[in-house]
Amino acid sequence: MSATADHAEERTSPAVRLGFQPEQVVQEIGYDDDVDQELRESIEEVIGSDLVDEDYDDVADAVVLWFRDEDGDLTDALVDATTYIEEGGSILLLTPKTGRTGYVEPSDISEASTTAGLSASKSVSVGKDWSGSRLVTPKAAKPKK
Description:
Layout: H1 3-11, H2 14-17, E1 26-29, H3 37-47, E2 60-66, H4 74-82, E3 85-96, H5 106-115, E4 119-125, E5 130-136
Parallel strand pairs: 1-2, 2-3
Antiparallel strand pairs: 3-5, 4-5
Helix pairs in contact: 4-5
């Protein structure tokens, strides 16, 4: 990649790099005092509305899941998150970076994702304290005519 492409990506909002789009409904799970407020604001700016919380009772286009090692079972959290999103939707799994409290091993993320029936499409640094993994649900097979 050229130096100019690197710089252009740095100027692009993290929410855009993560695939968020205007008018999406994005549900946030696992919010706490330690979340990255800049990332949240970036997502809200791109989608043009506030993130909806865990009490939202309709399907969302995407889920932002903040998860720390002490939050319980990651596979269960991912399976629960898939119930909130449209078929073919994505989950942005955010975990503390190496050395931070609540760090989750990449092998644990990979295993939990696979068990939950999700595919990892990309991992990205989303702030000084958080790493993100974009996980996608499988698209249903098209019905045969």
